[in-house]
């Protein structure tokens, strides 16, 4: 669906292209690949991130590093006695909202009851802020198939949502995985307007084991993207 949307907007995606070299000119850069040469005004190279801890001499404080160079912590984010690590440097999923939850865990160790841990963080919603956004939480269909659990796939094309038509953004689809024995939502992938907001509602339902049936019969305001959940979870 993402590829179809990009193609419709005139974006050419070249897959499985091995980058050979760059040829820089005064105003352009040519990328030489196994699939041909491409001239551009600029090239974005994304190769990931690593912790910047070399100058801290952490070993002097008894702090260990993981094989990838992150600070080694336990489920309470303790790196050593009276030392905690939070956020990207601790190897947490590299999202602002996960760093915020890391803070809650450490704060609970210092000022609270010390009950919060990373083990309670079972479901993490993610969003890629394309237009429309691509958001996901829980199992994908591939993961559900590998789990051996009985499940069904729920699908809804974005073009069927009245609010999407109002916004003029009808590309994409909504997809959810539902356990056929319990009726619980196992996961969802949303590629539609306001997916980055809607995914939080689905995470809340999953965290509190609210069945798909409850979302199918819920009364949502109109016109909103959220009311699409009525149709998404309708009987196949």
Strand and helix layout:
Blueprint: H1 2-8, E1 19-24, E2 29-33, E3 36-40, E4 78-80, E5 83-84, H2 96-111, E6 126-128, E7 133-138, H3 141-147, E8 151-157, H4 162-167, E9 173-179, E10 185-192, H5 195-207, H6 212-216, H7 228-232
Antiparallel strand pairs: 1-2, 2-3, 4-5, 6-7, 7-10, 8-9, 9-10
Strand order in the sheet with the most strands: 6-7-10-9-8
Query: What is the number of independent domains?
Result: 3
N→C terminal distance: 21 Å
**Strand content range:** 15-25%
Order of helices and strands: HEEEEEHEEHEHEEHHH
* Secondary structure: helix percent: 25-40%
CATH architecture classification name of the largest domain = 2-Layer Sandwich
Mean pLDDT across residues: 94
Question: Main beta sheet, described?
Answer: 5 strands, antiparallel
Tally of helical runs = 7
Give an account of the 3D structure.
- The structure is a single chain.
- The protein is an alpha+beta fold.
- It has three domains: 17-47, no CATH class; 54-120, no CATH class; 126-232, Enolase-like, domain 1 (2-Layer Sandwich).
- 25% of the residues lie in helices and 22% in strands.
- It has seven helices and ten strands.
- The protein has helices at residues 2-8, 96-111, 141-147, 162-167, 195-207, 212-216, 228-232, and strands at residues 19-24, 29-33, 36-40, 78-80, 83-84, 126-128, 133-138, 151-157, 173-179, 185-192.
């Amino acid at each position: 669906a993402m590829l179809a949307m990009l193609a419709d907007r005139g974006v050419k995606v070249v897959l499985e292209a091995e980058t050979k070299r760059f040829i820089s000119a005064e105003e352009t850069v040519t990328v030489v690949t196994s699939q041909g040469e491409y001239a551009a005004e600029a090239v974005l190279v994304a190769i990931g991130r690593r912790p910047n801890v070399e100058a801290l001499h952490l070993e002097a404080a008894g702090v260990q590093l993981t094989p990838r160079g992150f600070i080694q912590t336990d489920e309470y984010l303790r790196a050593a006695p009276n030392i905690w690590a939070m956020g990207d440097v601790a190897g947490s999923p590299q999202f602002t909202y996960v760093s915020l939850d890391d803070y809650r865990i450490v704060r609970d160790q210092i000022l609270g009851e010390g009950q919060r841990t990373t083990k309670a963080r079972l479901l993490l919603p993610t969003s890629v802020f394309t237009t429309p956004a691509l958001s996901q939480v829980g199992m994908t269909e591939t993961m559900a198939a590998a789990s051996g659990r009985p499940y069904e796939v729920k699908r809804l094309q974005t073009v069927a949502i009245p609010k999407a038509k109002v916004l003029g953004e009808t590309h994409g689809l909504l997809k959810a995985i539902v356990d056929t024995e319990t009726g619980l939502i196992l996961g969802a992938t949303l590629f539609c307007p306001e997916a980055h907001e809607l995914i939080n509602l689905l995470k809340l339902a999953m965290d509190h084991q609210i069945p798909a049936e409850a979302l199918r019969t819920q009364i949502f305001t109109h016109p909103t993207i959220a009311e699409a959940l009525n149709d998404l979870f309708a009987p196949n």
